[in-house]
Amino acid sequence: MASVAASIMATTAFAQSSDASVQPALTAFTLANGMQLLVVETHDSAWVHWEMVLDTPPFLEATRAGMQQVAAATMPKGSEGYTQSEIEQRLADLNAQLELSPHGFKAVAPSDASGDLMRLVSDVVLRPSMSQEGLDDVKEVMHRSLDEKKTSTSTAVAKVGARTSFGPLHPYGEIMTHESLDAITRKDLVTFHATYFRPNAAYLLVVGDIAPDVAYARANAQFGQWMRGSIPYTRIMPSKVLSGCQVRFVPMEGAAQSSVAMVHACLLYTSDAADEGLGVD
């Protein structure tokens, strides 16, 4: 739920009028399939921002670390209704942008093109082809990126920080390697998408020059037939809270710069059932 709350706060902040005393109204809907729609109407600009957040529990990728990242990168390579080149051309024609992640998407377009944008986005998000050719292209790019980042101090800091804070047996402590990237198959991507991309775990946030009833009509038209499903929960071994002050040093000869990060581990408690280890139905 933390990611959803953060997205809502960012959405509301974006929509806030230049007059700080005027707070934009948030209108909420629930689609029949369980998808939550949150709309903030503002006429500060003639644009509409759409963001979907999937509130799903984390899970270990193990020998296929990086699989969710690969899935998100493969989705725009083609869908049932569009090839990759057609997706790219359609976005250019609409003067729109689309960014996909393992937990949803962000999209923006002029208000008069938002309906067409959602037709495109829904096909890419709900019906990606996950082709072997697309997967191979993504792997090639990511293998190259892994090689390029071997001398990146910021990447080294991020990896050491994640592994130190969470450990190798926690989803947030897993690190993609050449070996784990090679192990990822098309079947992994298809299974992940079919399991975790479900409307009953989805929040669709809409901000901009659009009336709530229009946003609802467009969301329902494009996502209303999306079938809900049970999302599994896998119990994760709790991270061990570090005691005292510890220092991790990674020597990198020839590096042009140094990177330093300070991490403070703490325990957060919540009464939210979703954060206590329950799957989504």
Write the layout of secondary structure elements.
Elements: H1 2-15, E1 26-30, E2 36-41, E3 47-54, H2 67-74, H3 84-93, E4 97-101, E5 104-110, H4 114-126, H5 132-148, H6 153-166, H7 178-183, H8 186-196, E6 202-208, H9 212-223
Parallel strand pairs: 2-6
Antiparallel strand pairs: 1-2, 3-5, 3-6, 4-5
Explain how this protein is built.
The protein is of the alpha+beta class. 37% of the residues lie in helices and 14% in strands. It is built from nine helices and six strands, in the order H-E-E-E-H-H-E-E-H-H-H-H-H-E-H. The chain has a six-stranded mixed β-sheet, with helices on both faces. A hairpin with a 2-residue loop joins strand 4 and strand 5 (104-110). It is globular and about 55 Å long. The two termini are 15 Å apart. The model is unreliable at 273-278 (pLDDT under 50).
**Pattern of helices and strands:** HEEEHHEEHHHHHEH
Shape from CA axes?
Answer: globular
Number of E-state strands: 6
- Mean pLDDT over all positions: 88
Poorly predicted runs: 273-278
Strand order of the largest sheet: 1-2-6-3-5-4
| Largest β-sheet summary | 6 strands, mixed
Our estimate of the beta-strand percent is: 5-15%
Give the proportion of residues in helices. 25-40%
Please identify the structural class as seen in this structure: alpha+beta
